[in-house]
Protein 1
Amino acid sequence: MDKTIESNQYGSYNVYEFDEYPEGSVLEGQTRKSFIDMYDSASEALREHPDAQLGHRDAHNHFDHLPDDGDGW
C-alpha cells in the first residue's frame, strides 16, 4: 500500500495510506485514502513511516456513477 506524508492546516503532518474501496461500497474499486496518524514534523513521520512519500496526493474519486435523484434534503 502506498503512503504519503502531507502537511496540514495545523502546522503538523498527516500520514495517509492508499488502497481500494472494497466490493459493495458505492466507491468500489476507487482509491481509498485513509488517515493513519499525525506528527509534529515531517522527519518524525518519515522515521515512523520510511516507506511513505512526502507530498500531497489526491484520491481522484468520481461520483458520476451514482444516481442523481436527490437525497431528501
Note: The chain has one domain: 2-54.
Protein 2
Amino acid sequence: MTIKLPNVLYKYMKPYRLAKLKNTRAIYINYLNNYPQDKLGNYVGDDNEGKIATKWEIGNYIFNSGDVKNPAFETAFHTMQHAIFLGKNSRNITIANCTIEDQIDESNYYVLCFCLNKDDRMKEEFGSSMLIVRDTVRFLDELNVQMNKKGLMFVTAGKCFYINNRVRKYTEHDDKFITRRYLCPPYLLKDNSYSYQNEFRIIWKRVDNNKIIEPINIRCSKALKYCSFSYAP
C-alpha cells in the first residue's frame, strides 16, 4: 500500500489538554466506538463511526437471461448478494421494485484524528490550542514503534471522504461500483455534515483482533520532538 502523508497536521484541543500532553508526553489515542454523540455533541461525537451501507434499488432487471444487459452491475450484485442466491444454472430471474441493503461495520480500530489545515471553526468547536505535527513521517515512525510494543499494528493513514448519510446507492443502470471491499474503507468515511473538518486519520488495530474497549495513552517523547505546541492567545 502506498500512503501519501502530508508534511504538516493540526490537532485542535482545549488548552489544558495540550498542557497535559506536553507535560506527560503521552498521546491519547481513542477508538472508533468511543465517540458518543450524547456526551460529545454533534461536532466531535459520531455514533456511526466505521459503519456504511450499500443500497441496491432495482427497478426491473432480468438475471441469467443469456443476454447480459449490464455486466458491471451483475458482477457487483453477485459480489454482495447474501440473502438472495442466483445460481449459474438458473434462468430468467427477474428482480423488480426491490431494495437490498448491505450493512458493514468496521469500527474495531484505534484512531488518531487531525485536521489538514488551520480552521477557525475547528478552533471554536474542538479547542483553541493545537498540537502541530511538523514532520508527519518521522512522527508516525516513532509512534508506530511504541504502538507495536503494545500489540497494536498500523493499518493505514489517510484523509477522510464524505458521503451523504454513509450510504452508497446503486441501481441496475449504473456501471461503476464499489462493492464490499471499498476503495475507501468505512473507517475513513464520514457523513457530509462533517466535511468542513477536513480530517486526516491514522488507524491501528489489535494484533490479536480482540474487541477494543478503552482508549490508550502512549508515552512517546521521540514522536513529539517532531511537533510544536500552540496555545490559545
Note: The chain has two domains: 9-50+108-165+181-230, 53-103.
Protein 3
Amino acid sequence: MDEKVVEEIRMHQETVATDANSPLHRIREKELEFSGRVLSAKREADEALATARKRAAEIAAAAEAEGGSGAADREREILADAEAEAKLLREAAAVEAYTLSEQIEARRDEAVRLVLEAVASS
C-alpha cells in the first residue's frame, strides 16, 4: 500500500480511539473520504488510460496489417499485369520473327542471283 494511505489509516484509528464526536475527528473522516475518492479516481483513470493504449495498439496493428495486405495485393496485381504484357510481347516477337523468316525465304533466290551477277561482273 501507499505510505500515505497507511499513515491516514493510522491517524483515523487514533482519532476514533480518542474522540469519535469531536470536530477534529469529523474533519479527519472527511479528509479520509476525499482521499479515498481521489485514489479511486486515479485508479479508474489509470485503467481507462491502459484500455485506451491497448485499443490504440490494436488499431495501429490492424491498420498496419491492412496496409500490408493491400500492398501485397497490389504487388500481385502489378506482377500479373507485367507477366501478361511480357506474354503479349513474346507472342508479337514470335509473329514478327516468322514474318521476317518468310520474307527472307521469299527473297533468297533474288539475293543469290544478285550476288552471282556481282561476282561474275567483277
Note: The chain has a mean pLDDT of 82.
